[in-house]
Amino acid sequence: MLPLLAFALQAGVLPAHWTTGGPDCAQVPDWQVHAYNDDLLILRQSGCVHYEKPFLYLLFGRERALLLDTGAGRPGTAAIVEKLRRGLPLLVVHSHAHGDHVAGDAELRALRGVTVMAPGFAESVDLGGRTVEALAIPGHDSASVAFYDQPTGLLLTGDSLYPGRLYIQDFPRYLASMQNLLAFAVRRPVRHILGTHIEQSSTPFVDYPVRTMYQPAEHRLDLSVDHLEELVRELARMAGKPERKALRSFTIYPRPPRNFSNGSTGTP
């Protein structure tokens, strides 16, 4: 149930289905752009470009815009964002430092009026009539940050919570971070929790294999505070003995992939 203050949140719409990567890549654009409302766009990179298919978030205030993450592989993020940013100065921040979320940084730095912050930036931002709060949540990655958009009540959690495999680099820090995130969330009206991937199938407890491009029956993108509470309960239960465990909407995955050491990506 949403808190009583949720009635004041700006309304928005999520699509019934997202484009993934096929079945015919010739017919799939590199980016799907969905208007949650007039001042918040959700971008998804096609699986035909990179199997990670990350989600990016573009938020508009009166004075500047904010972009969360920059894509994977060779994303061409600058070209699509330049068309969308309405001529506003743009601040670019990151959910964390893995390669599938920072690959477009260099091309965005080349644009006039764009400031790209290093991963780990965890300061609240005033976009002009729109405040986005930040909370450091290390554990998946040392630079993981959650962002809360006050006008819409969207809590943006990167790879720390999304419908898929929740890879955990540092279990004690991740548990503490998720407890802190839950305490943060219950003090605010949260309409949706939105992460940066979908790996889970619409079938409970079942995810798509790593490197799947086309996911015709994937889970919804949006999760809720109930899911965050479920995650915290399970993490606390296994605190003394971390284990991999599939739940209905995500899988707790305590062992970090081998290539976490170079920060290149969030998958094995």
Count of helices? 4
* Largest sheet report: 6 strands, mixed
The separation of the N and C termini measures 36 Å
Indicate the mean pLDDT.
Answer: 93
CATH structural class? Alpha Beta
Number of self-contained structural domains:
1
**How many E-type strands?**
15
CATH-derived topology? Metallo-beta-lactamase, Chain A
Structural category is: alpha/beta
The appropriate CATH architecture is: 4-Layer Sandwich
Order of helices and strands: EEEEHEHEEEEEEHEEHEE
List the strand order in the largest sheet. 1-2-3-4-5-6
Low-confidence stretches: 259-265
Radius of gyration from the alpha-carbon trace, in angstroms: 17 Å
How would you describe this structure to a colleague?
The chain has 268 residues and is of the alpha/beta class. The chain has a single domain, classed as Ribonuclease Z/Hydroxyacylglutathione hydrolase-like (Metallo-beta-lactamase, Chain A, 4-Layer Sandwich). The protein has four helices and 15 strands. The strands form three sheets. The chain has a six-stranded mixed sheet. Helix 3 packs antiparallel against helix 4. The radius of gyration is 17 Å and the shape is globular. The chain starts with 30 loop residues before the first strand and ends in a 15-residue tail after the last strand. About 3% of the residues have low confidence.
